[in-house]
């Protein structure tokens, strides 16, 4: 009997165990078979924290492969709040290390998120301070930060990025998808108690490298001279563009005000605006080039044809228009040289509105040039059917039409190169590693479009030279090169009276050099320069001169006009008086002095105008330090210019070929801004025996 009871108990126990085993295994099977994916997702969500690491952006180079924008590794601080036992204390310690409010850090830690950023992209000192705290649950992660090593240089072209490395301006924005590359993700692993224990990283692709047409040295010259002009004229804004007229490539693009893209978020939006492509203005008298180009191209005028400018006034559609001077009879060449409004109006009236409008549109005004930069304005050209009876008069002298600086320089470059309109571009090449990528439609170099006949362009070049030799652009005359250009002084609309202001103007000068084989076109525009006179020929033309006289030798452009004999004679008058023929006694020579009249008629015509003395060049912070003058013997004009610029010296170059003499002598110690006179000529035929 007792034995039967034992069997019953064993059977009951076995049944009970079997039941629970069945229940347990059934539950396990249910979880494995039916809820596996759900619990796997929950576990992954609790154990894995994915941090988005934005990729390393491509490098932006100038045309000589000097880096202008790059990405550098920095540390960012983050926290796993579940690991931090005393969040209040952690917040106080982090606040001291990072210079942040403790309340802000505590709010992040109490946000309920399993992962929070404390502070991203820390300077090295702050990163080390965070790591030295050795707080449990607080970590650092490497990210990339955009860095612009030349600071303000070319800032409006390069643009800037936000904290997530997204391009917000300039090239950084225009080609953000290519430069940005593919996103990287860092996976942080944690156990059930949210203790960090492992991680893995999925590498993304680095961005594409971009090579620009900009030359950092020409860009530096443009920015320096623009800053000097702004300081002298107190203009609130201005633009300088240097372009290769034979390809449309932009060699320099400078705007004022400028900004540091390394700290762009702290800068007002108007300072970051690229005025060269987005700000429109009435061009004033520079637009007379388009008026004359159309009339010459239609064979409606001749350079020597005389127009009666009616003592400086004319009435069109009931509007009386006054010239800036009371001109009488003027040839077409003199109309351009003296910038006669009445003469330009009479030429436009002979041409007629329809043909004039076609040429305006043909030169690209009223449409975007297609330059590879964002937010370009198309300018403003009213449709022909919206022109009034007075419009042709207004437009002929650069009113009732609005242009951008890049449109204006592109049109003038077409005159310089013989009548071909190139699309301006600023990207030369894109590379992914060693592979050169094809440029897309927006950045590809398109075939030029002919806008005027070569004969028309040649005539205009000759007339534009007259503007500099005996017209309103005398202060743009170059020493050693021929040059052509046109001044502009466009009155701005007074917002109070809604009429043209007699004092606020856009003063501009656009020109190119040399005339027969142009190497550069340069536009200078100053917005509302102060003082008087404030015309384009007074304030913008000298800036053209200073830029051109530095850029041309840097590009090794041969001189096509002999230097003033008096200038050379003055510079070297003591050369033969020294035993060794050195030029050591020439440092006190004023190379900006006006030369006396030359016997040669052509030289007399070029030299008889008084040229202004150049303003002081803006010096760097270490002004006054001792600088050792290098030995320039045997170097080209470009090498000498580059070496002087690097040291902060002011080169004065005489002659052609290679450097054969210099003053001060090599090894002399001078101050920044000192003029260094270098004579170029054929290298001496020295040999070992002659020594």
How many helix segments? 22
Average per-residue pLDDT, rounded, comes to 84
Oligomer: single chain
Largest sheet: 7 strands, mixed
Question: Which key phrases capture this entry?
Answer:
disordered C terminus, alpha+beta, 691 residues, 7-stranded mixed beta sheet
What topology emerges from the helices and strands here?
Layout (H helix, E strand, L loop, with lengths): L1 H33 L1 H12 E6 L6 E2 L5 E13 L7 H12 L3 H8 L6 E7 L1 H10 L4 E10 L7 H4 L11 H5 L1 H5 L3 E7 L5 E7 L6 E4 L3 H18 L3 E7 L6 E7 L12 H4 L2 H4 L9 H10 L8 E3 L4 E4 L2 E4 L6 E3 H6 L3 H11 L1 H10 L28 H6 L8 H12 L3 E2 L5 E6 L2 E3 L11 E2 L3 H17 L13 E10 L6 E14 L6 E8 L8 H19 L10 H7 L29 H7 L19 E2 L8 H11 L2 E6 L2 E6 L5 E2 L4 E7 L10
Descriptive account of the structure:
With 691 residues, this protein is α+β, with helices and mostly antiparallel strands. The protein contains 22 helices and 26 strands. The strands form eight sheets. Strands 2, 3, 4, 5, 8, 16 and 17 form a seven-stranded mixed sheet that branches. Helix 3 packs across helix 4. It is elongated and about 145 Å long. Residues 192-197, 574-624 and 687-691 have low confidence and may be disordered.
What's a quick, concise take on this entry?
The chain is 33% helix and 22% strand. A hairpin with a 2-residue loop joins strand 16 (427-432) and strand 17 (435-437). The longest helix has 33 residues, at 2-34.
